[in-house]
Design goal:
Elements lengths: L1 E2 L10 H11 L5 H6 L5 E8 L3 E2 L3 H10 L3 E5 L4 E3 L4 E8 H35 L4 E4 L8 H10 L3 E2 L8 E3 L1 H4 L5 H6 L1 H7 L5 E5 L2 H9 L4 E5 L3 H14 L4 E5 L7 H5 L5 E4 L10 E7 L1
Parallel strand pairs: 7-8, 7-13, 9-10, 10-11, 11-12, 12-13
Antiparallel strand pairs: 1-5, 2-6, 2-14, 3-5, 4-6
Length: 289
């Protein structure tokens, strides 16, 4: 069992925890109430059914505390837990634990699924190229960004872009309104003067465009949808025309081919695939005290 070395993970606000609770238990647990067992003492145990990079354990514990239960054992976000690991335990009334159960489980399974996929991609990529950075796009499902960013960081990746407000990433959708790529690239010095603290990233759709962009002196050339063989040749050419420029690869990268893309020599691989897939398989027991 080990903990990811990505540092302190962000805090999900109390307002979000309250929103999760409001969605699932707006008026209490009718079943537990009608069965008359709500005030009995109980304990809940969450455990892994497969190797899992844990995420949102802290938030799951806070959900339980919100209902009046107390956490007796917790492993932190970023822990790589083998199958069969009990990583979160809490104690409280049956009413409290049943109310917290599915909210906590949903948080844990979805976020840990993303974290686990990310960790596998990062390992595969860095086994092929120890210097490569894995970055994830902003193509997460709306309303989930805080959780998915925590999850990809737990797996060892970084966000490619948190949003439109803090990054300069120029696509063909922009340059088509500026007279085309050639004309846009002539204006790079002016763009840099207007935003001197911000990296300029420009996407290329062909090898020719990538070389043209690299010569223009941008900070990052983002190459979209080239296969690994094409990219390997292109990386060498880009390095020859501008050794200082960083190269990122995007488009169709996933767990099955991340190592191949990393091995091309790019500095960054950019992907969305880790957001989508099977949730982590986590077991739950609720038992009498």
């Amino acid at each position: 069992m080990r903990t990811n070395d990505s540092g302190v993970f962000q805090h999900i606000p109390d307002s979000d925890i309250e929103r999760f609770i409001e969605e699932d238990v707006p008026y209490g647990d009718l079943t537990t109430h009608l069965l008359g067992i709500g005030m009995k003492e109980a304990r809940i145990v969450f455990s892994t059914r497969e190797e899992t990079t844990l995420c949102c354990t802290e938030e799951a514990g806070r959900v339980a505390r919100n209902f009046g239960a107390f956490v007796t054992w917790i492993m932190p976000t970023g822990t790589l837990a083998p199958a069969g690991t009990a990583f979160l335990k809490a104690q409280g009334t049956v009413e409290a634990l049943h109310a917290a159960w599915k909210i906590s489980l949903n948080l844990l399974e979805y976020s840990s699924g993303i974290a686990s996929r990310t960790a596998r991609v990062v390992k595969a990529a860095r086994d092929a190229n120890p210097a490569v950075t894995v970055a994830t796009t902003r193509k997460s499902f709306p309303g989930t960004k805080k959780i998915v960013i925590k999850a990809i960081r737990a797996g060892g990746a970084i966000p490619h872009r948190l949003g439109l407000s803090e990054t300069i990433l120029v696509f063909k959708h922009h340059t088509v309104f500026m007279g085309g790529l050639d004309k846009f690239l002539k204006g790079i010095p002016g763009l840099r003067a207007r935003a001197p603290e911000t990296k300029i990233i420009v996407e290329a759709q062909t090898a020719r465009e990538a070389l043209q962009i690299a010569r223009a002196g941008v900070d990052v050339v983002q190459v979209d949808k080239l296969n690994p063989d094409q990219l390997t040749r292109l990386v060498k050419e880009i390095r020859s025309v501008n050794p200082a420029v960083k190269i990122s690869a995007a488009g169709g990268i996933n767990e099955s081919n991340a190592a191949q893309y990393a091995a091309t020599g790019v500095d960054i691989i950019v992907l969305s695939s880790v957001y989508f897939g099977k949730p982590a398989d986590i077991g739950v027991q609720i038992l009498p005290v």
